[in-house]
Design a protein that fits this description.
It contains 16 helices and 17 strands. It has helices at about 10-15, 40-55, 65-85, 100-115, 130-140, 160-165, 185-195, 210, 215-220, 245-250, 285-290, 290-300, 300-320, 350-355, 370-375, 390-410; strands at about 20-25, 25, 30, 90-95, 120-125, 145-150, 170-175, 200-205, 225, 240, 260-265, 270, 325-330, 340-345, 360, 365, 380-385. The strands form five sheets. The protein has a seven-stranded mixed sheet, sandwiched between helices. The protein has a four-stranded antiparallel sheet with strand order 13-14-17-16, with helices on one face. Strands 1-2 form a two-stranded antiparallel ribbon. The longest helix has 21 residues, at about 65-85. It is globular and about 70 Å long. The mean pLDDT is about 95. It binds pyridoxal-5'-phosphate. Pyridoxal-5'-phosphate (PLP) binds next to helix 4.
Amino acid sequence: MSNSTSYDVAAIRNLFPILNRKVKGKNLVYFDNAATSQKPIQVIDALVHYYTHYNANIHRGLHTLADEATAAYEASRVAVQQFIGAREPEEIIFTKGTTESINIVAKSWGKAFLEKGDEIIITSLEHHANIVPWQMIAEEKGAILKVIPMDQNGILDMDAYKSLLNNKTKFVSLIHVSNALGVINPVEEMITLARQFNAKVLIDGAQSSVHLDIDVQQMDCDFYVFSGHKIYGPTGVGVLYGKRELLEQMPPFLGGGEMIKEVTFEKTTYNELPFKFEAGTPNIADVIVMKPAIEFINHYGKANIREHEDKLLRYATQKLKAIDGLKIIGDVENKVSVISFIIDGVHPQDLAILLDNQGIAVRTGHHCAQPLMQCLGIVGTTRVSFAAYNTLEEIDVMVQALEKSLKMLR
Ligand SMILES: Cc1ncc(COP(=O)(O)O)c(C=O)c1O
């Protein structure tokens, strides 16, 4: 697809069977895409095709089914490599998801390289997945976790970041796009600053991988992580990208089959990348269907999808702001199609229940970012998040339902 004038949202919607379902007797309006996106028919069909035609364990078999499954699994690795601009497929490790990918880095890299008194920097916007693993390894190693503050709209204080960086900074782990607010962080600039102190940098791409063009080489991050289920792909699969030289220096995370070169009762030598980090039988089926998910995005084009989502974002922002007592948190220019808001005198959970009664799926609560909510002085927000298949009409339905709900709640 070449440009947005040919962006055919009706055709895209036809690829997503779930969008035809009714909820509580109403057409489903799915605005919980930042939690997980729906899956196009190509992904669903590929999953069924794998189990129907070539289910087999990979890498070790010497039969046709094993060869086919191995080829499809490795083709997905190449698709992911190209999707994020990695130098080679060996730098792509398949994991269970963003959470597991961050845990591997914190535990494996941290175990090998962190020492007492070393410092790790994260931001105030982090998802729990990019806080807890660092707290765990910091406690184990006697390292110190430092947090970059932000303003009330989720904009990071870059001067504070600069003053936190020093020769003891060993690792900087940054959320690229806030799942709670949609705000995009200036990670390129932040990586350049971290480099001055030789710190390693991980980018949590759980929310950026689907919306922004990602080129890990150009970004020059050391690690980039994301989950399949947020890019129109399956649950249970994620990606850990790491620079080869770092992955080679890191000890394995899990021990077992597949990650070994040779085992005796006395000693084991480890397999090469990427297998060193893929112990045991992996989630073969779901890894394989990462490829059609990526092909779906590539077919329509990230830039075209983003343009469509930006239109939805601008329209919904304007409509929501007109609602009495409603305040958007993270009302900034540089953001993706996520809108988080609070309404005077209304508990987000009450609102979510009333919206669900009208067929509308939104998310409420702390969005796995309790420290962020504490910084904002709130318990939670209502979050609507848009994907390639959402429409302006759905926003109208949501706003009408919201107004109706508010009449009941106020
Ligand atoms: C920014 C961010 N980081 C990490 C995660 C964790 O991802 P997963 O639950 O797929 O491991 C999420 C999921 O919502 C997220 O939005």
